[in-house]
Specification:
Elements lengths: L4 H4 L2 H13 L8 H14 L3 E6 L3 E7 L6 E7 L26 H18 L5 E7 L7 H7 L2 H4 L2 E10 L7 E2 L3 E4 L1 E10 L3 E2 L10 H10 L2 H5 L7 E9 L6 E2 L2 E10 L2 H22 L2 E8 L4 E3 L1 H15 L4 E2 L11 H7 L2 E7 L18 H15 L3
Helix pairs in contact: 2-4, 3-4, 4-12, 7-9, 10-12
Length: 386
């Protein structure tokens, strides 16, 4: 596997970085300690510019190449998850209840490895802009960075990102032109009735039958309102009402998520969920309070940039280790906001068998850090060659 030799020399150093990051997980936009660690490394590498405090704790580094040329962006996410770690590794989280359960410690490490190499060699034209982003898991940090003008401020012509992938062979790349990850929306519906004694339900307006009916009706959004050839997942993930067994509750709650790729399907889903909730409220004589949030948009790879990124992946990993027509996934990713503004691509990098992301026993595989760093570095060198 042709990892760049110079980056291979950083392997142990990168492992040290990654494990420090793993011991010090931070959530959402509160990635200040992580950002300080990143900035300290970037200063050691001698990058040309460091911009801090974007989207609260985001960092952008600029590395100038040799001669005029375009500007290319590389992005890594930095935040962790509110999960109690059960990996058993000797560098486990030192912040109880938080852990790097999705490998963002590894993503940050791979981009730092690329930064060190690019700052040292500068075998490219134009500029490389390295984006260290908070709040991917919750908060849409990429969207905040976009709204704060990162894409225009640094003049990005294209942008790329990687995500580790458990249970894909080590060092294998998967991606595809077009949609690769779904949009995600959330719904929260509260039915309000009139509570009272369970022995005298005729004196109450019970919200529980409305919730039960809606839970049964919601799957028809997928089976009866959307074409079978359109991709959509609607999941009810929370139902709760009352605490005492002898009390009819005042309110009952139901919530969940919708994942799809098409704006038209997204519109249908929201419209039908609202209509079904209002209909059940009317049928059972309760009030419906409906919250429907459109969160991350679909992650859509630019066709040309995806093909370019896949060609770089083949140069790094070999033809047999690259899948260029990987099936799209119903998970979501806020890198989508950057791809809405700037052509680019998102790829998965296999890290071998093991617990999946968001599992309390998950751990990033340090073996793939030099591979990911080499991919990032070659993206720059091949996009903007001397």
């Amino acid at each position: 596997m042709p990892v760049i030799n110079r980056i291979a020399d950083y392997a142990e150093e990168m492992k040290t970085w990654r494990r420090w990051l793993h011991r010090n997980p931070e959530l959402k936009f509160d990635c200040h300690k992580t950002a300080a660690f990143v900035v300290e490394r970037l200063r050691e590498f001698g990058v040309d510019e460091i911009h801090e405090g974007i989207a609260t704790s985001g960092v952008v580094a600029v590395i100038n190449g040799q001669g005029d040329g375009p500007t290319i962006g590389l992005r890594a996410d930095m935040d962790a998850l509110p999960i109690f770690e059960e990996s058993g590794v000797d560098y486990s989280s030192e912040t109880e209840g938080n852990m790097h359960a999705c490998g963002h410690d590894g993503h940050t490490t791979m981009l730092l490895g690329a930064a060190k190499y690019l700052a040292e060699t500068r075998r490219f034209k134009g500029r490389a802009v390295l984006i260290f982003q908070p709040a991917e898991e919750d908060g849409g940090g990429a969207g905040v960075m976009v709204e704060e003008g990162v894409m225009e401020r640094f003049g990005l012509a294209r942008v790329f990102a990687l995500h580790n992938a458990p249970n894909i062979p080590v060092g294998h790349f998967h991606s595809t032109p077009g949609p690769i990850m779904a949009a995600v929306d959330e719904f929260e519906i509260t039915f309000k009735g009139r509570g009272g004694h369970a022995a005298m339900p005729e004196d109450t307006v019970d919200p529980i039958p409305a919730v039960a009916a809606l839970a049964q009706a919601l799957p028809t959004v997928v089976s009866r309102n959307v074409s079978a050839i359109d991709d959509i997942v609607l999941s009810v993930t929370s139902i709760h009402a009352g605490k005492a067994l002898n009390v009819v509750p005042e309110t009952a709650f139901i919530g969940g998520t919708v994942r799809c790729f098409s704006p038209e399907v997204r519109d249908v889903a929201e419209s039908r969920i609202r209509a079904l909730a209002e209909g059940q409220a009317a049928a059972f004589g309760v009030e419906a309070q409906i919250i429907y949030r459109r969160d991350y948009p679909p992650t859509i790879n630019d066709a040309d940039q995806a093909e370019f990124a896949l060609s770089v992946a083949r140069a790094v990993a070999g033809e047999a280790a690259v899948v260029g027509d990987a099936p799209k996934q119903m998970g979501s990713e806020d890198f989508a906001y950057m791809l809405e503004r700037t052509p680019g691509a998102y790829l998965f990098l296999g890290q071998g068998d093991g617990p999946v992301c968001h599992h309390p026993a998950y751990d990033f595989n340090d073996e793939i850090s030099p591979i990911g760093a080499s991919f990032f570095a070659q993206i720059v060198e091949r996009a903007q060659p001397l």
